[in-house]
Amino acid sequence: MTILILSALLPVLLVLLYINYSDKHEKEPKKLLIVSFVLGAVLSVVLALIMYFGFDIILPLKDDFSIQQQIIKAFLVVGFTEEFSKYIIVKYYAQPKKAFNEPFDGIVYAVMVSMGFAATENIIYVTQGGFEVAMLRAFTAIPAHATFGIIMGYYMGLAKFSSNRILYNFLGLFFAVLFHGLYDVFLFLDFIPGIAAGAFISLIVAIVLSRIAIKKHQFNSYFK
């Protein structure tokens, strides 16, 4: 069991090390990073479960072979629920901090929260599914959650130093939900032959955009 948990956490750790390495200008206080991660691992998961329960009551989706229902599930029930539960932690805990003093910090804190959420989720899946699930998710779900966090954090980093904070924060949430939904919808429509390949295409696009976002905020933070 210990080895399974470690296999679930290793890709999360690699993402965090990469983001920390990419933070070239001013490293964030370790306490804030740890708290952000823990809030993502605990609070965002609890909030997501509450929202899932609420959606199950007001919007029950019972037909696994309905394209319309699977689209709603991917974008609204899963994508919005999970990204919103991360977003409010970044917005109300990390963004107001004085240490959040450069655009790249939006990426750092959003990824910390996202990886906290992903760590809890990954432990659950891997302990149930074993090493094969750990290997699969190390190259799919974990990078996906990382890219959602980077995209969200890019806009929330802009928001902190903009007069249009509401707009940029909204865009952070919107695009995180959009890419999360795009990734999931191809997986949920697995009853359509070959469509699952779309999930990997959307992930590759998200990774490319994430690299661009990182480069831009490295530049923006240097001149902040």
UniProtKB/TrEMBL annotation:
One of its GO terms (molecular function) is metallopeptidase activity. Belongs to the protease PrsW family. This is Protease PrsW. The chain crosses the membrane at residues 32-55, 134-155, 167-189, 195-214. The keyword Cell wall biogenesis/degradation does not apply. It comes from Aurantibacter aestuarii. One of its GO terms (cellular component) is plasma membrane. The lineage of its organism: Bacteria, Pseudomonadati, Bacteroidota, Flavobacteriia, Flavobacteriales. It is found in: Cell membrane. Signal peptide: none annotated. It is a multi-pass membrane protein. GO terms for biological process: proteolysis. Keywords: Cell membrane, Hydrolase, Membrane, Metalloprotease, Protease, Transmembrane, Transmembrane helix.
